[in-house]
């Protein structure tokens, strides 16, 4: 089954990390990506441009209201995703828990229909 693992974090948080913390973070990402690629579970992954280049679209009474930014009443923003092809929701959850952003923010796991 395919699962989308959504990565949430706070814009600018990487800039606040020490050099050692950044090195560890990106090292963890590289390790996980290598493991998922070698196991054949990695389908796709992308980082997203920051919230400064985001538009939010809401349609109310048939009229689209478009605003700059991801103004969805949260400090954390959708930052990227992985699509993995693995045996179970439990395995997809394990992958999400191993992602470095899960230490500071949140990861969301959803089955792809």
How many alpha or pi helices? 3
Largest sheet entry: 4 strands, antiparallel
Radius of gyration: 16 Å
Record field, number of beta strands: 6
Series of H and E elements:
EHHEEEEHE
Structural class: alpha+beta
Low-confidence stretches: none
Measured as a percent range, the helix fraction is 25-40%
Assign the CATH architecture.
Answer: 2-Layer Sandwich
Total count of domains = 1
Main-sheet strand order equals 2-5-1-6
- Looking at CATH, the homologous superfamily is Dimeric alpha+beta barrel
CATH topology name: Alpha-Beta Plaits
- Beta-strand content bin: 35-45%
Distance between the termini: 9 Å
What's the CATH class, please? Alpha Beta
Provide a descriptive summary of the structure in words.
The chain is an alpha+beta fold and 113 residues long. The chain has a single domain (2-111), classed as Alpha-Beta Plaits (2-Layer Sandwich), CATH 3.30.70.1060. 31% of the residues lie in helices and 36% in strands.
